[in-house]
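Consider the following assembly input.
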Amino acid sequence: MELGTIDDDELDILLNDLLEVYGYDFTDYSRASLKRRVNRLLQIDKFPSFAEFRYKVRASPEYLKRFVEEITVNVTEMFRDPFFYKVLRLEILPVLSTYPLIRIWHAGCSTGEEVYSMAIMLQEANLLQKSLLYATDLNPDVIKKAMAGIFPLSQMKQYSENYILSGGIRDFSSYYSAKYNHVKFNEDLRAKVIFATHNLVSDRSFNEFQLILCRNVLIYFDHNLQQKVFTLFDQSLEPLGFLALGNKETLRFSSLSSKYNQVGKEKIWRKVA
Amino acid sequence: MEKSSIRHHCSLLIIGGSAGSLDVILMLLPSLRPGLSFPIIIVLHRKNSFDSTLTDLLASKTTLPVKEAEEKDILTPGIIYVAPADYHLLVEKDGTLSLDYSEKVNYSRPSIDVTFETAAEAFGPELVCLLLSGASADGTEGLKVVKKHDGIVIVQNPVTAKVAYMPQHAIADVVVDRIIDASEIDELVNTL
């Protein structure tokens, strides 16, 4: 091995270890991205050889936590793609408002920024009280961060602009209190959120929802794994429920696409059959 | 530095550029010959995430099909793929494309390095990479990996680049196969 990079065979060995020792299955992730992130970690943590890296991953559950956090992409933001949120606000929430209890699943929620965005929109539509949001991720550490609802103050300018572009008309700063370099979002926003770990690769459907959001998760999966996850979402979606994906993701090539209609130009599909 | 033409089997051409490179690409596109025997990927630094007009602009300059790259796209000869704003574009070994919304690299997403590096692993000696004008260090690390896998590295002559920094940075750090004036690029691409 050349210092700082692993080859495909070594990546296979590592992925096998993760599955065998910890039950984490990354074998159906898109290779180029996964390999890039493993090599990035190898360089940051300055492992002298693959053998030492492998030993550390196998032997140390503590290091495994770091590994999972660094390998999975946890880049997210509030009201990301504001026009997507505008469609949710103007077209999807009015439909959801007709239900006595609204159930929403944020699958692969990472540190929770999009969950808080949804809670803010539900609160503004007077729907939060009758809503239940499930926010899940495979990584327990990001779930802890999501539960805390504490984000860097430096992000708030961008988030506030996104919020306004999404159709928000309140003072965005009324949703949090700032302390030093961080802000904490209001407790009432997460009163209706259930945070839990859930692995889309290996865990099953656990409820039925009217809206599932899974944004920029499927781009890391290969075609077969995408199909598997679409089936999981289909099993977890009520008739006439909505599935919302990331800006570059599509249901179009899935075998389920005939059961769904796209809502306008956004990456939102409604289950019609 | 050889001045002779690049004798090489090209299965993929990637063009990376930043500030000052759009004009070069707009000049190149109309003179591309129809039915190129390889796909082209264009990775350009852009200001923001809502902008998908770049693809339309590029498409208006050539008869070759131009599309914004989507994940799982299968690289097909004669098609020009444009890296979408705000995602990294990666090349898989099976000749498909992946997108990645991870941290910016060299303050950029898409990063030229990311596409160069992954394509180098996937296409090895059949890859040709061209780095244009820019004010960023992006591209240099990627070109090193391309060289390591015996790919061909071509850099715009900094003298003819609107912003010399990016090609200069690459030339200082990578053994490039050719330094090329903006006006020669069409001929080079058409004879690859």
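The first strand of chain B starts at residue 12 and ends at 17. Ask yourself how this observation constrains the way the partners meet.
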